[in-house]
Amino acid sequence: MWFMLLSGKIWGGTVSIVTVFSTSVWFFSSEWSSARTVSTAEPSRRRSLAASTVTVTVFSATPRSGSSIDQTVCRRLSWVMDALSFRNPLLRSEKDSESDWRAPMTPASGVMTTFGFSGSRIVSVRIQKVPRAANPIRANQRAFLRCIGVSFLRKFALSSIMGPRRIFKRNRPDGASVRRKAAEKRGGGHSGLAVARRNCYSEVIIDLFEISNISRMIEVAAMLRNKRVLLGVTGGIAAYKSAELVRALVKREASVKVVMTKSATEFLTPLTLQTLSGNPVYTELFTLVREADIAHVSLAEEAEIAVVAPATANCIGKLASGIADDLLGAVLMATKAPVLVCPAMNTGMYQNRIVQENMEKLGRHGFAFLEPASGELACKSVGVGRLPEIEDIVEEMETLLTPKDLSGCRILVTAGPTRERLDPVRFITNPSSGKMGYALARMARRRGAEVTLVSGPSALAPPRGVRIVSVTSAMEMHDAVTERFADADVVIKAAAVADYRPAEPSGSKIKKGKETLMLRLERNPDIIAALGKKKGRKILVGFAMETEDLLARARRKMKDKNMDLIVANDLSRAGAGFEGDTNIITLIDRDGGLQELPLMDKKDAADRILDRIRAYVRT
Ligand SMILES: Cc1cc2nc3c(=O)[nH]c(=O)nc-3n(C[C@H](O)[C@H](O)[C@H](O)COP(=O)(O)O)c2cc1C
Hints:
Blueprint: E1 3-10, E2 13-20, E3 26-31, E4 37-39, H1 43-51, E5 54-59, H2 67-84, H3 89-96, H4 98-102, E6 113-118, E7 121-127, H5 141-147, H6 152-162, H7 164-171, H8 175-186, H9 193-203, E8 205-207, H10 214-221, E9 228-233, H11 242-251, E10 255-260, H12 264-267, H13 270-277, E11 281-282, H14 295-302, E12 305-311, H15 313-320, H16 327-334, E13 339-343, H17 347-351, H18 353-364, E14 368-369, E15 373-376, E16 382-386, H19 390-401, E17 410-415, E18 420-423, E19 426-428, H20 435-446, E20 450-455, E21 467-470, H21 474-485, E22 490-493, E23 500-502, E24 521-523, H22 527-533, E25 539-546, H23 550-560, E26 565-570, E27 582-583, E28 585-589, E29 594-596, E30 600-601, H24 602-618
Parallel strand pairs: 9-10, 9-12, 10-11, 12-13, 13-14, 17-20, 17-22, 20-21, 22-25, 25-26
Antiparallel strand pairs: 1-2, 1-4, 2-3, 5-6, 5-8, 6-7, 15-16, 18-19, 23-24, 26-28, 27-30, 28-29
Helix pairs in contact: 2-3, 2-6, 2-9, 7-8, 10-24, 11-13, 11-19, 14-16, 15-18, 20-24
The chain binds flavin mononucleotide.
Flavin mononucleotide (FMN) is lined by residues 234-238, 261, 263-264, 312-315, 344-345, 349.
């Protein structure tokens, strides 16, 4: 059983050809990633494939016209949605309406449905039809699914598309010919909705795959997936929060092993963390993990990242002094994995010079620290010393694991909407949430860039480690960006800046009076055009949101404003644009390269944009 992904350069992009079991079905996708050959025979690759974007193509063998087949497949897909319990709100709402599902259909083109998974989420949906002749019937697809590690849950979902009869046939060694015969026997002579539906049901065949830029998706957007994490829990009052941390890590598909100090077990039982992690919890130095494995050595060696949360002053002091008189101390001393220490203690303890010196010393020796948060502490005082939010700990772990391919690069990102005041209580704005720009800032920081985020009003929490500049109006955005332009190597303008502002904003609240109210608007400065004129060797990236004629307009905009890369998104497509967690983008570069990406999480989209920027930074 084999599977190959071959890539070759064509027109500046890369065309990937996926061939499965020597059948005649190829999947083509244009990529900018470098040429590579991947074989699922390697176990590590297999894991990557399982966790990457997998596009499943559902072919209809029967070229029936119209809605009955479409509706049935739509229904099947909505069952799949249920089965996979998507976290993607947009797709959930699509699922609720069959007409939405059918919206992107192009009946003339032949195929039926393509949708892509990223982890347990569906990230792309495309609906097409194929004529019967083009239907790539073949056996062993389930075996293939197993080979690339498609999980039980997904198999279940797939079987809900295929139906029990289909699975039964598929499991037979001669499944392909049985199916073909059945299809031939049926012919095209059925009538009536029920029959049409049944035929469609049994004719739906699942084809697989596409792996798009797997390594980056895995390495960056989901760094903790399949990672072996060692969590050290020490005897602070925040020990109870480690239960939440275990859950967050397990949710990201990390394999978590917990080591608790003796004091930690006074605050929380090992049973709790054992249950949540699904692994034994270790507390004793003088026990063997497996028959002859010394606990601290094997735990230290197998960890890919270690995190101590909460870390007591005592634990930090012992580490800084090289004391390894308990299991956690010995493991942390022996491991080669990166270690993130999350101190949590009373403010007085935290600010004690000795504790500070211990942390400085550990920092010099390569330990990473996450500053505690400020707020009300367990001892009822207010100050610094709280364990940071679990999301922040996880983000820091992801950052530690991310290759720093943008280090040394100074990136200025703009995000969010602007507000143009009409009077003290009213303004003109747009629905931008800032999610795309914030995702860009977060991912760039993870990849080692020094990031400044100039943000219009947004409800989002500022990404960690990013310098934030808050602005309100387009004029403020203009000034903030212009001021910082000289210090940036890359500028990404993801903000939705108002083109116009009220010419005469009122100093007092405009009273309700006449039936109509005329507003005179004047142009705001075109920030990106101004930057384009003086950009020199800097890299300028813009966004184009259009409802029609997207690509032509985006190209024109890029050329007119002297950008290096433009990210085009079609606002008329479900899943793209403002507010949602997903986007559908097309990257167009100054050299004429074009990369269409499927529906994906904004974090993944940000990552792909940064991949492209990185290529420019390096040239
Ligand atoms: C109720 C209580 C709460 C404590 N909370 C903390 C704390 O938040 N941070 C800390 O550094 N020590 C705290 N301590 C002190 C530690 O438990 C003590 O230093 C212990 O020796 C730490 O052991 P360990 O580092 O091996 O886990 C607390 C002690 C008690 C009794």
